Amino acid sequence: MTKVCILGAGKVGTHFIKECINNPAIELIQIFNRSQKGIQLYQNSIPTTQSVYELKKADLYLVALPDDVIATLDLNHLKGLVAHTSGTLAFTNLQAQNRAVLYPLQSFSKEKKIHFKKLPLCLETEFEKDYKILREFAYSLSDAVYAIDASKRQKIHLAAVFANNFSNRMMGIAYDLCKEHQIDFEILQPLLQETFLKTQILPPHIAQTGPALRNDQQTIIKHMDQLTGTNKTIYQLITQSIQEKHGTEL
Amino acid sequence: MTKVCILGAGKVGTHFIKECINNPAIELIQIFNRSQKGIQLYQNSIPTTQSVYELKKADLYLVALPDDVIATLDLNHLKGLVAHTSGTLAFTNLQAQNRAVLYPLQSFSKEKKIHFKKLPLCLETEFEKDYKILREFAYSLSDAVYAIDASKRQKIHLAAVFANNFSNRMMGIAYDLCKEHQIDFEILQPLLQETFLKTQILPPHIAQTGPALRNDQQTIIKHMDQLTGTNKTIYQLITQSIQEKHGTEL
Known about the structure:
Chain A is of the alpha/beta class. Chain A has helices spanning 11-21, 67-70, 128-141, 150-180, 189-201, 204-207, 211-214, 217-225, 229-246; strands at residues 2-7, 26-32, 48-49, 60-63, 81-84, 98-104, 121-125, 145-147. Chain A has an 8-stranded mixed beta sheet, covered by helices on one side. In chain A, helix 3 links the parallel strand 7 and strand 8 (145-147). Chain A is elongated and about 65 Å long. Chains A and B meet through helix 4, helix 5, helix 6, helix 7 and helix 8 of A and helix 4, helix 5, helix 6, helix 7 and helix 8 of B.
C-alpha cells in the first residue's frame, strides 16, 4: 500500500484527494495546502498542514500545485519520492532529493467527476529505483499508465491544449453565437456528439468537412461578414489552416 | 406517404438517399445527379436521370447540391415543392415555383452513418401551404424538426462551423503534433471523450481549462516556442480569445 501526501487542493489536487480517499490500495496520510481554504473540508478526516516542514513520512509526495509555485517549494528534507503533476515542467524544477513526474492527461473541472480507471498517467522518475514506487501508485488509480519522458510529455501537453482547451473554445464561440441570436444551444448537441464520435473512428483529417475544406468561397465570405473582432480573425485563420492541411487553393 | 426525388448524390445526398430507401413512410421515386458516377450504384433499384427535364412528378424535390450549383438549376417546370439543403442559401436562390429549405444540421462523412432519428432538420417554406408537406417528410426521418427562418439558419450554420469544423481542426492539429513526435493519438482519447461529455452537461465557458484561462505565461511561452507557422498564430489567437472571454489580463 502506497503512503501518500498530496500537496495542493486545487482542481487537480482535489480530484486526486477524493480518489485516494476511496482507494483501498492507497493510504492518504496528509494533505498540504498553502492556504487553509482548500483543506478545511478534510480537517476532520485527514491530517492537514500549511507547512512543508510538517509533512509526514510518506512513500510519495504528489505535488499538484501551479507550475510557478512548484519551483519555489523547498522539499529537500523529504526522504520519499516527490512527483509533480505538471505537463510542462521537468522533474528538475522540483527542489527535492528523489524527483519524479506523474502527469494526468485530462481536463479537470470542479463540476465533473473523472473516471480514474481510464485516466492516462504519464510517469517519469529521475532515478530508476524510484520508478517502481510511482508505477505501483499509478496502477492503483488507473489502467492507463505510460512511461513518458519530459520531451514527449511536453508535446502531449501541447497537443492536449489544442484537443481540449482550443476545441472547447470553438464550442464556446458556437455557444456565444447561439446565445446572441436566441438559438437554443441544444440544437447543436447531435453535431457535437457526431464530432466527437468521429474522432474515435476516423483521423481528424478524414473527418474534416465544411466550407473551408470545400473551398466554398461564397459561404466563407458570408460567414466572415457576420463576424467581428477576434472571432472573425479566428474564422479566417482556421479556414487557412484547414486549407493548408488539405492542399486547397486559397 | 411522401413521394420524393433527390437531386445530388454527394455526401449529403447519399445519406438522404440511403435513409429514404429504407424508410417505409417515404417513396423515393427518382435520383438526379449531374454526372453518372454518383448514381450508377442505384441504377438497378431506383430510376435515375442526369436531366432536370426528365424529373418525375413528386411531392418534394430535395436539392442536395453544392451552393454554387443550386442557383444555376432551372427547376421552374416542377409543380411539387423544391427544397434545398444548404445552411447558408435562402430559398430565393432556387429557380422554382414552390421553394423551401430543409437544412440538416450535421457533419456528413461518407465513412460514417448518421442517426437520422436525432438529426436536427431546420425547415422553411416560401408559402405557408407548403410547410405541411415539408414537415411530414421531415418527421418521417427525424424527431428533431424545427421551423427556422433564413436569418437564424445562417447563424446556426456559422455556429456549426465553429462547433464542428473548427473544433475538428483543433483535434487535427493535436493529431499532427502526436504523429510528428511518435506519440500514439490514442493517449488523447480519454481527454477528447471528457471534452465532449462536458459540453453535454456544462456550458463551454464553465468547462474551459488550461494555461490561457489561468494566464499561465510560462507555459504559454513554452508552448509558443514549440510551434511554427499557422499553428503558432492559432495558439496565440485562441489564447487571446479565451482570455478576452474570461476577462484574464493579457
